[in-house]
Every structure is written in structure tokens, then in C-alpha cells.
Amino acid sequence: MSGIQDIVDTLHQEYLPKANSQLTDLAQQLGDLGYLEAFDDQTSLINEQEVNTAMQQFSAEFKSAQLISSKELSQLTQIYGSELNYRLLQLCLDVDEGPTFKALPNFGDQDLKVRIIHYRLKLLGVYTNPVSTYYNATSYHGLTQLANMIGKSLLTTCNLLADLQQFTVKYIQHKGYSNPVSIFKINPATLDQLKGADGKPHKLENYTGAFKRSVKRELTRYPEVFEQLKQTIFKRNDDRVDMESVNELAQNSDNGFVIRLIQIHQWMAGFYHGKLDGDLGPVTIQSLLQIIDSYNEAGDDINEKKALVVLVEKEGIVAFNTIFFLNKYKVEQSQSDKTIQTLESVNASYQGASPEQQAAFNTNFHQGIANVRDGKSDAVKQGFLGRIFSGIKGFFKKIFRFAKRIFSWIAKAVGKVASFIGNFLKKIYEVIKEAAKHFIEGVKFLLGKTVVLSGNPNQNILTQFSSDSDVFNLAKNLDSTILNTHKSKVNEKVQSLKFSLLLIAMLFKTIRLLLLGAAVAWPIFLLKLAKSFKQLIDQYKQIQTT
Prior knowledge:
The protein has about 550 residues and is mostly helical. The chain has 25 helices and six strands. Strands 1-3-2 form a three-stranded antiparallel sheet. A hairpin with a 6-residue loop joins β5 and β6. α23 (about 480-505) crosses α25 (about 520-540). Residues about 380-385 have low confidence and may be disordered.
């Protein structure tokens, strides 16, 4: 049994969060919802007592808001145990699988629902007041702006903001095809700062008929829209544009909104970590070039002529084929959850690689996971709106097209996809750490080492679980308060063990090999652990809990 014990010890030491490692995350996320002052780890000191007080307020408001059903809350409690509130906090900030509402707040309301709505409005740039303030005319105006963008009611719009991929699809359907090209005036010096994947200077394509034809392909079902563009910015001579029309389009207020929407999608996929400002600046353009290059490596055959070009170089006027890019998100939205398929693809790539490639992957994978665990990853940004929390499902729908390239990118530690890989490892770690906790609990139970202790040195009670004997308790000067607390902890542990053993069962073949003393290929074991955990959560929703 020493082999399996070594694996448990390694998981515990290397892949579970360090003590108090979540305090910074808690402070940031509580700040995002207005329970703490806006948090910036460069200038702020974390007061643990203040964080705990803010978390208690959040917990009370979550309970009264009734954002999820009692059954779902019970399931989450059994899966996440003592970290339930941390998971619920992430849920409230989730713009991929976030909570929805049955009704909008009333003017003057000031509760968790209002905080979530304000956070979402602020994310999209239509609300600038504090998140914690009451629901007011400014809140209403911001929500109305977004409702007009997609042609939906205020409540429907508010709930669509819990799934920004679906919101984007509605935007495309309502407004995207009427404003398919965005025009931006950029400092010409900015264009000289761009770099390609190799780090060398890179120039955007100059405008030719290829760009016009790519726009026309996106507007096949909207010939009247293309005809209007043809009469304005596109002249018969492919090498010239109508400057009067260009200047007019550059003033379109939708330009900044759609770029901000694209920035959010880029951030969620790990290609953008700049400001959410709706500006086609150097960081945004660089992220677009990065994802275009990655699309090409994945076999999508995309280039700047289809996406963005320089219309007038001396004046720094750039045209962006926004509908082309937005339609990529439309395809993602229609996909099913691709988490399992992506992990299987990485597994297959690893197993088919040379020993040298496997060794490089091992090294970079381990280092990347350690960076994420210790808060050193570039994918973990600080400050309000410095990170956008999206669920596992939406993230893997976005990156599935890159699944066959992920192994080689990690093995080579390619700089151009460093932020993308950081995001991938961050999402993997979020699943691994939860799976590892349950895996460890299950193994401890099988080894007869599961213990629950409550109380203090003078008054306490201990319960020990064993897989081959009855549960037994030891008590010392026990009082009713400690007993009630202990009963709650024991019940939580029992439910957790049930879940843990289900996970063990799903990993039985792997566990059998480990017990036989086979060498552990850690990245593959962890990816299998993540895959099993994801499958188990999906299955667990169908299990009646007691």
C-alpha cells in the first residue's frame, strides 16, 4: 500500500492549495462584488478578519437571495464541503454559467442580486457607479442600453449576461450584421509596435479587394448591407476607400462596445489580459494577431485580410471585420461541452509523443501548475475586472479547436501562447484540486485513516471511519454545542466520502496499476483525475442525495 500512500502524499503536497492561498482570491472576488474596497494586491494589505466578515455578509445575502435550488445547494455542499462559500462566490461572478433571476430588482433594492447585475453591467462598460450601491436609474439605463443591443426585454437581457456567449449570439442576430465592419483611428506609431509570433516586427495587411471579399462572404444572406458598404467605404478601385464614409463609421458608438465584447471573449480564452476599454489599441491588436496565428496552427486558415487591415496607413485608419470574428463565438455557442474531448486529445498526444517531448511536457506542465497554485501565473490578474470568471464548460468550448495543439505548445513552452496555456492550466488546476481532495479522502477511507475531530483540548469528540470496521467515537467532557457542531461535520464527511468513493471507482483501472507499483506519469494521471471528476459531477446531478 506504500505506493498509493506516496501518491496521496504527493497530491497533497504539490497539487492542493497552500495554507491561506485562497485569501487573496477571496479578497479580490469579494471586492468585485462590493463587499470589500476595490482590491489591488500591489497596494492593498489583506486583513483576514475583514475578509471573513465580508464572506459572512456574502453568505447571508446568498442564502436570502435564493439564487439556486435547495437540491443544487445540497449537491454543491457535498462536493465542495467547507469551501462551499468560495465556490458560490465564483458562481456569482461567473459570466459563463452564472445565476439567473426570476425578476428584476426594484428601485432602492440593495442586495446580492443587485451586486451581480451591477458587476455584469460594469464588465460591459455601461455602468460606472460602485457595485454595492442600490438599484437606481443608472442601473436601469445601463441595462436598457444592453437590451437595445440585442432586442430583448430587460429581464431576458440581464439573464443573458450570465452566459456571454449566448448574449453575443443575440447581439449578432440583432445588430451584428447591420454593423459588420468597425473602423478605428489609431496612432500610426502603434502599428509600428506590433510584433509577430516570432517576436519580430509585424505589419498589418494593407487594404486590398481580399478584405472586401471576405466581408462579402460573411454577408451572403445580407446583400443589402454589403451593397451599402460598397457604396460607402468600398470603392470600385480596390486600393482606395471613401474617406468621408470612413470618418463617419469611425464615430459609430457600437465600435467600442463590440471591441470590448471581443476583448472579454479573448480574455476568457486566454489571449488577452489588457484593459477592458473597447479600444483597438496595441494590446488588443496583438491579441487578435496571436489568436489568428493560433487558429492557423489549428488548421482554420485565417489571416489578417479576413480580420483586420490598414485602410489608410499615414492616418492610422484600421478596418476590423467584426462580424467575421463574432461568428467564431457563434460557432462556439452551438457546441456541446468539450471538456472531456479536449482532455482526451491532450492524453492521446502525450501517449503518442517521443520520450523527449514527454519529458519537456512534464517539466512545463508541472511548473505551470505550480505557478497557478502559488498565484504566479500570468492568467491570474489582480484588481477589479482584472479577471473574468468563466465556467469550465464555456472555456473548453472556446479552446476545443486548439486541443490537438495544446500538447506541443506546452512541450515547447511557446511564448506566443503563454497566456493561453496559463489559462488552460488554471482551469485544469481548478478541477484537479477539487478532484484531488476527494481522491485523497477516498484513499484515506480505504486505508482506515479518516478522522473527524471537534472541540478544544478540554472538551472534544473524535470520530474515526474505517472501511472494514464500525465507526467509533471518543469523547472528553462533551457538551451539546460541540456535539451539534460535530454531527454537522461528520454528516459532511460522510457525504464527501460517498462522492470520493464514486471518484475512486471511476479511476479503478488507473488505481490498480498504481497499486501494482507502476510508474506514475503525473500529467496524464492528473488529466485523468480531472476528466473523471468532470464526468462525476455531471452524473452526480442525477443522484438523489440524502
